[in-house]
């Protein structure tokens, strides 16, 4: 819906866990707008479960969406970026890629994997004009956070305000991150002035994670 409001945008539905679906989506994107100069891996899913209730299927699903998805998308575009001598790859990870959180072991494991992928690939392509970085938001006002708030309310009987307070308890600013703040960080990494920034984790988290 948002893409339809934008004059030159092209919206393509894709299952990032499926190699064929990813290949078709990028083929349509290239057909409509030409070669891919910037890749932002932003698809993600998070389900809260205590570790004792995590089964293989749940763990695998978190890896498929959050780690395999970026891997498949990068595979499609990387060689052409190298051949051109220019490209930007931004993986939207999470503060869960930089620290642990209770009840999201599978999600956090996958996001830590995204950071490993980001850092290793950044080294491989550092001399080829391609940068690879991760943006790591804290709890952001998106569907994932809204679902988490509803889950807390349903399980504990807390009010919406109390549920939000629980989510942001480790954020010194005590608030949800806004999507526009994450987008601004991504946009900066895409620009010429960020050409020397690669292999980095940019935390957008109100001071929750510092390095």
From TrEMBL:
First-tier enzyme category under EC: oxidoreductase
Pfam families: adh_short_C2 (PF13561)
Record's keyword terms, sorted: Oxidoreductase
Gene Ontology molecular function terms on file: 3-hydroxybutyrate dehydrogenase activity
Alphabetized PROSITE patterns for the sequence: ADH_SHORT
CDD domains with a match to the protein in the record: SDR_c (cd05233)
InterPro entries, sorted: NAD(P)-bd_dom_sf, Sc_DH/Rdtase_CS, SDR, SDR_fam
GO biological process, alphabetically ordered: monocarboxylic acid metabolic process
E.C. number: 1.1.1.30
Gene3D superfamilies according to UniProt: NAD(P)-binding Rossmann-like Domain
Similarity annotation: Belongs to the short-chain dehydrogenases/reductases (SDR) family.
Protein name per Swiss-Prot or TrEMBL: D-beta-hydroxybutyrate dehydrogenase
Organism of origin: hydrothermal vent metagenome
């Amino acid at each position: 819906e948002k893409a339809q409001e934008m004059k030159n945008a092209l919206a393509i539905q894709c299952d990032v866990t499926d190699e064929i679906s990813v290949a078709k989506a990028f083929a349509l994107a290239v057909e409509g707008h030409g070669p891919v100069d910037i890749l932002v891996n932003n698809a993600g899913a998070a389900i809260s479960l205590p570790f004792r209730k995590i089964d293989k299927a749940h763990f695998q699903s978190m890896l498929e969406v959050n780690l395999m998805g970026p891997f498949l998308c990068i595979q499609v575009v990387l060689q052409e970026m190298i051949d051109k001598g220019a490209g930007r790859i931004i993986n939207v990870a999470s503060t869960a890629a930089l620290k642990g959180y209770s009840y999201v072991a599978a999600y956090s494991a996958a996001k830590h994997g995204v950071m490993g992928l980001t850092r290793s690939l950044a080294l491989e392509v550092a001399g080829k004009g391609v940068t690879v970085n991760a943006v790591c938001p804290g709890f952001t006002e998106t569907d994932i956070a809204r679902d988490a708030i509803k889950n807390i309310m349903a399980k504990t009987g807390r009010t919406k305000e109390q549920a939000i307070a629980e989510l942001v308890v480790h954020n010194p600013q005590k608030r949800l991150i806004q999507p526009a703040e994450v987008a601004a960080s991504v946009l900066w990494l895409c620009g010429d002035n960020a050409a020397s920034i690669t292999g980095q984790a940019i935390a957008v988290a109100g001071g929750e994670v510092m390095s």
